[in-house]
Amino acid sequence: MHYYPIPSSRSKRLYGYDYGKAGAYFITICTKNRYPFFGHIESGKLNSTTAAILTQNIWEQIPSQFPFVELDEFVVMPDHIHGIIIIHEPQDPVESEQKTGGFAGHQNPMLHQNLSRIIRWYKGRCTFEIRKSDASFTWQSNYHDHIIRDTEAYDRICQYIKDNPKNHTSN
Fold this sequence. Notes:
Elements: E1 23-30, E2 39-42, E3 45-48, H1 50-65, E4 69-76, E5 80-87, H2 93-97, H3 115-130, E6 144-148, H4 151-167
Antiparallel strand pairs: 1-5, 1-6, 2-3, 4-5
């Protein structure tokens, strides 16, 4: 009998961590198959496509969509984005208690003000806008996050994001 492992569908999020609580998060979102929808790096700078410009503009809209969010460093690379999202104190829980959440009740993820909801909105909005000019655009199905736990890590990650284009090498 042959054994074929089943791919893990386990979440990449830190088990038991509340991604809705105040904190800073380093986010990376990749395009499907790392396809360079956003352009190419030339002399340490991204030669941007329309998709890259839309991606930047929609990132900047996050705080107006989620007033409890602040943004810091952000960069668009040929096949991914990096950014820092800062979530401030959670919103008034009474507001979500008044909503039913449909068949999922209070387990409905769209009722919770957390990182997943922010990223879901961002990816969806980017996809909608970019597909107006490039119907083939697709994100990777998930995203990478890193909880930033102290000032030293925050500063190091900010520098990494700033330096990413000039440190980029083509595959």
